[in-house]
Structure formats: structure tokens, C-alpha cells
Amino acid sequence: MGTLAVLVFAWLSIQQVDDEHALTWEGQVTDRYNAAVTNIGEDPPEVRLGGIYALQRIMRDSPRDQPSIVNVLSTYIRNHAKKPKQAIDALKRKPTSDVQAALTALGSRNPVHDGTARVDLHGANLSGADLSGAYLHGADLSDANLIVADLSGADLSDANLSKANLSVANLSVADLSVADLRRADLPGAYLPDADLRDAILFAADLRDADLSGADLRGADLRNARR
């Protein structure tokens, strides 16, 4: 009986230590999260950049915080990547370092931990952005400016790209299956070997787009300009 009591006491002691470690860890993550969110609201760009990198690390360290971080970074990008007043400026601009860092963090996350969160970049000015290989399945990119953006190899399946400007964008080998591209601007877009199965391209502008090797099975091309 004495031996059993010792074992039970030892097990309870270990459990208590584990619980204390878990609480300490959760507190540390919460402090890191609050500090990072505060930093991305600061003026110096290097402080904002540090906050974004911190949020990216938290997504790796604490998967349960990923949904809220996806929402925070999406909102940050929409607020800091607004469309230029003149269309010609879009060809000359690339995302600032903090916006590009936020895009990279979103595009490289592990989607298994997204929960119900989704990337929402509707209306954002992402001209010249590097989103190559990014995971953007189901993302909202409607009315976004993606002129000359690099989306090669990106997963854009089931994404909303309606009315998006993808002029001269690189979409080679991109997965655009079941994507909504209705009324999207794609003149001069580079789409070789892209997966466009069951994509909606109704009234899309495909003039001078390179569709060599693209899979268009089941795609809706009604009223598309080619």
C-alpha cells in the first residue's frame, strides 16, 4: 500500500508540474502575441516588420493561434496595400517590405491549422508581389490588383479572383481549379500548364494570355475575350 501511495503522489506531482509548464507556455505565447500585434501598429517600418515575423513564428509554435493571426495579417495587408490612385502607378510599384513579409507568412503557413479562417485580401494592391508557391486555396482576392505579380506554382484552387487584375501576371503551373475568375483581367498573363479545370472565366479578358498546356476542362469561358 505504501508503494502505491508513493507512485500516486509522484504521478500527481508530475501532472502538477506539467500543468504549470503548460500555463507558463500559454502565458508566454499570449505575451508574444500581444507584443507582436502592438508592433505591427507602430510607425517605424522595421518595428512593423519585426511584429510580422513574430506572428509568423507564433503560427509555427502555437497552431491554435493561427486562425486569429491569419485574420490579423489579412487585415494588415488590406490596410497597408491600398490601390494607387492612377492605374499607371501600379506597374511601377511593388509591395513594401512589411506587406511582402505578411504575404509570405500567409502563403507559407500550414493550412491544417486554419480552422474556419481564410485569407481575405479583397481589393488589395498586390502589384508585383511575390506569391510564388503560396497556399491561397479558397482565398478572397476579388478586385485585387495583381499586375505583374508572381503566382507561379501557387495554390489558388477555389479562390475568388473575380474582377481581379492579373495583367502580365505569372501563373505558370498554378492551381486555379474551381477558381472564380469571372470578369478578371488577364491580358498578357502567363498561364502555361496552369490547372484551370472547372474554373469560372465568364467575361474574363484573356487577350494575349499564354495558355499553352493549360488544363481548361470544364472551364466556363462564356463571353471571355481571347
Automatic annotation (TrEMBL):
InterPro entries: 5peptide_repeat, Pentapeptide-BTB/POZ_domain. SUPFAM superfamilies: Pentapeptide repeat-like. Transmembrane segments: none annotated. This is Pentapeptide repeat-containing protein. It comes from Streptomyces musisoli. The lineage of its organism: Bacteria, Bacillati, Actinomycetota, Actinomycetes, Kitasatosporales.
